[in-house]
Known about the structure:
Elements: E1 6-9, H1 11-15, H2 19-31, E2 35-38, H3 44-57, E3 66-70, H4 79-83, E4 93-97, E5 101-107, E6 110-115
Parallel strand pairs: 1-2
Antiparallel strand pairs: 2-4, 3-4, 5-6
Helix pairs in contact: 2-3
Amino acid sequence: MQGIQLDLISEARISQMASMEKVRYIIDEVRKGKILVLEKGLNPMEEAKLIEMTMSAIQPDVFSGIEMQSYPANSEGSLLGKFFKKQSNKRLTVIGPANQLKTLKKDRNLISALVSASK
């Protein structure tokens, strides 16, 4: 069967990994042509490291890099969260091969993407 593999990764699974383990896992899976949807996004340092490592791994005709979009962190939070100065950083993140995933539209409540089967 031919198609596109879409992996939905729970917050529980991704939170068990160390930062570098997350970055390496994402790059390895995207290099295989998978589209990843992370229930909880990466923190800014992990995103920066992912971009840095991806840029060094790009090879024409082998690995074209990644496309990544995330919902912004929830700035409203709960009343108790505001009281205790806690902010939720939960957000959905979509990551895939740059030659297969193209973001069409993104706003606070929607990520619209076109996924292509061609590599």
